[in-house]
Amino acid sequence: MLPQCAACELPGRRDEARLPAVREDEADGEDLVSRSDKKRARRVREDALSRLTKELVEVSDGTLSRLGLDEGLVDAVRDARLIKSARAKDRQLRVVRGLLRSGEWGAIASRLDTLLLHGKAPPKGLEPSPEEGRARQWAVRLMGEGALALDELLSAHPAADRRHLRDLIRNATHGSPASRKRAEAKLAEVIRLLLR
Length: 196
Prior knowledge:
The chain is built from ten helices and no strands. By secondary structure, the chain is mainly α. It is globular. The model is unreliable at about 15-25 (pLDDT under 50).
């Protein structure tokens, strides 16, 4: 005879049977991230890579050579410029994004921003630091992952102001494209100072 559950009066049903089993290896916070949150984080990162790819394709050859990029990346960007067909150009832009994704794209974005802002490449001693590249990647991650990434950043740097960072993240994710770019740069600057 099957045991009866007192709460539901149905034979063979227990309260434990209705609850999903939680395995020990799934108990950490990584599994608490929903698929939609992962998808949003991936989309924000890909949007940042897409903007960087577009900026790289639009700059001149001289500017591109002053960035100090890998030869494969430079060749892929130059190939993308030469292609006239929209479909073929989109495929080539995906190749450039893939090359950026596998490298230090945050540092490349920082060097490009410095070059475009000042009109010339920074001197050898004043090149953007590795923290600037990491700060750019953290900013994109914070915009995509939200609270989980913010908690991770704050656990590593407890002196940071949570409210200020949340406000910067909100400004970087809402508004016009120009204001979002300025807010993203400000967020990256605050994170760079935090990473020192």
